[in-house]
PA2169 family four-helix-bundle protein (Pontibacter oryzae), 149 residues
Amino acid sequence: MNNEKTVNVLQELNQFVNDRIEGYKHAADATKDPAHKSYYNDLINQSRSFSNEINSSISSMGGSAEKSTTAKGKIYRGWMDVKSAATGNDEESIIESNIYGEEWAQKAYNDALDNRADLPQNVVQMVEKQKQASLATCERLRQMKESAD
């Protein structure tokens, strides 16, 4: 197994996890619904835990922890700030933005798993577990959107 390849895959994945943290911080600040705020804060904590897991794996393979976010995520959050100002932070827009973010997270997890043959089994299991949690989050967000309609 190639530690350098694994480190690169995990560093890239962790940028998306860091985007997830920033996105849910934005949502928690923007929402006016106390139940949504609590859920977004739970997702921030979950994402921080994911990031810590990934960084621990990176460090154990001799790599440097990944603390940054993606350029695409930064641009998207900037666009969301503009959209929020225009829509007045309505709950449906916030939820839709979170669904979009989770869909990007799914793509990042799938991209990481495309390298499964090059990854240690424990890393594959960690990525699959986090992907399943992201899928569950996406489903819950869709349910929240339906109730907000």
In short: The chain is about 85% helix and 0% strand.
